Known about the structure:
By secondary structure, the chain is α+β, with helices and mostly antiparallel strands. Helices cover 38% and strands 26% of the residues. The chain has 10 helices and 13 strands. It has helices at 18-29, 33-45, 66-92, 115-123, 141-155, 180-188, 244-260, 280-290, 298-307, 314-325, and strands at 2-10, 14-17, 50-53, 101-106, 130-135, 160-168, 191-199, 211-219, 227-232, 235-240, 270-275, 333-340, 344-351. A 9-stranded mixed beta sheet has the order 5-4-6-7-1-8-13-12-11, sandwiched between helices. A two-stranded antiparallel ribbon has the order 2-3. The model has no long low-confidence stretch (mean pLDDT 95).
Amino acid sequence: MTTISAVHGVLPPHRYPQAQLTELFGRLCLPDKAARAVANRFHTSARVATRHLALPIEHYDAIDGFTAANDAFLTSAVDLGCEAALAALTDAGLAPSDVDLVMSTTVTGIAVPSLDARIASRIGMRPDVKRLPIVGLGCLAGAAGIARLHDFLRGWPTAVAMLVSIELCSLTVQRKDASAANMIASGLFGDGAAAVIAVGEDHPIAATGPRVVDSVSHLYENTERAMGWDIGSTGLKVVLGPEVPDLVHKYLADDVGRLLSPHGLDTGDIARWICHPGGPKVIEAIQTELGLDEHDLAMTWRSLDRIGNLSSASVLHVFADTLTDRPASTGDWGVVMAMGPGFCAELVLLRW
């Protein structure tokens, strides 16, 4: 089985309270006082206390379009991605030259050459390293990336594979957009990165950590407009439908059952739930459908409060926090899960 030998999250140094970020959004995007009052209600209900930004807060006034935003994305994303990758390799006791596959994921900027190429060159990966950039999975990609590392390592069991997730959501906020989706997203999403190191079962090092046992994917029919981007001259305009919690209620319990039942398990057998912090209504829907409480998803709620939703990097931050602050015992089962554009779900079964 694949072993997850390290998960490491990093954040930009620029950290601000929610009220200060609400004021910034209102000043940049909502000249109308009534719209600002609505945005303030959305931001207050997000259960986010602080978030990190890719840039110092005073620099956002100078971002006057998609070109400037994407230029800032390229600089900050590569820096954060290298920091996350090197830290995860150190945690795993490996060097950049040990990596056989590097997979990158982002949905908050455009990079060609891709982020994995830029990171590989900067930190000294081998010239024959395999690369796989993933764009478009959004919040789903942290869990899906772990599953795809496992798929690769089943075919290459002596290899080391790395996932690097970098999301700079603050650089996508649309000026002069008073839509509910823009108001909600501007109060929920933050900036950050994370890296995962996975080792195949026949690799010569004695890797320690949870093992990947199985994964399940589910692409829901006729849900393309539930979440995503509309891409235009001003950049990436968020699509965020109100139906997302309803999709959790409709599908998630069956998805979890499809993951667990082949292994003779049910929800009561799972010691660690590593869930993406999609927002309060989504987390509450997960708890309701799976019969969980806030203690079961304590790491998810804490991550939402401290750093907001980091799109694909968020579930990896929750994973890293779980490994550090709620370590599992040998033999314990765990589930990593996230949902995102498609609309779809990805679930990964772990065992310590």
